[in-house]
Amino acid sequence: MTIPWSSLFGGMLLGVSATLLLLLNGKIAGISGVLTGLMTPKKRDYAWRWLFVIGMVSGSLVGVYFLGAEVPKEYQTSISMLIVAGLLVGIGTRLGNGCTSGHGICGIGRLSVRSMVATVVFMFVAAITVFVRLHVLY
């Protein structure tokens, strides 16, 4: 069995960064909440959100261009299916009052029962989606 070191290291970085944001700023590192705050900015709360998003984008660029992270060049689905999937994720994020990063990383870390339930629901729906996509649609 090989250990996926980059995945382990990435998970540790996510945990440490979410913890530091909560301890130092009192903010939750849920991506949907960060982006929602950018669309409805509050004067005191606006700058850290931009820095968060800029850090995510620049971190991705560093990973691809300097660390050799691979990005898919081709997709096995249509652009319209990708758009529908993105819209469904957005609707689910709104309905679930947060996303997987907010509930799964930050919420479970804070022992939030609501986040634990939400994460179980996310995972269950993801399993059903994969089953339908692989065994029903094709």
TrEMBL record:
<dbReference type="Pfam" id="PF04143">
    <property type="entry name" value="Sulf_transp"/>
</dbReference>
<keyword id="KW-0997">Cell inner membrane</keyword>
<keyword id="KW-0812">Transmembrane</keyword>
<keyword id="KW-1003">Cell membrane</keyword>
<feature type="transmembrane region" description="Helical">
    <location>
        <begin position="117"/>
        <end position="136"/>
    </location>
</feature>
<dbReference type="GO" id="GO:0005886">
    <property type="term" value="C:plasma membrane"/>
</dbReference>
<feature type="transmembrane region" description="Helical">
    <location>
        <begin position="79"/>
        <end position="96"/>
    </location>
</feature>
<protein>
    <submittedName>
        <fullName>YeeE/YedE family protein</fullName>
    </submittedName>
</protein>
<dbReference type="InterPro" id="IPR007272">
    <property type="entry name" value="Sulf_transp_TsuA/YedE"/>
</dbReference>
<feature type="transmembrane region" description="Helical">
    <location>
        <begin position="46"/>
        <end position="67"/>
    </location>
</feature>
<comment type="similarity">
    <text>Belongs to the TsuA/YedE (TC 9.B.102) family.</text>
</comment>
<keyword id="KW-0472">Membrane</keyword>
<keyword id="KW-1133">Transmembrane helix</keyword>
<keyword id="KW-0813">Transport</keyword>
<feature type="transmembrane region" description="Helical">
    <location>
        <begin position="6"/>
        <end position="25"/>
    </location>
</feature>
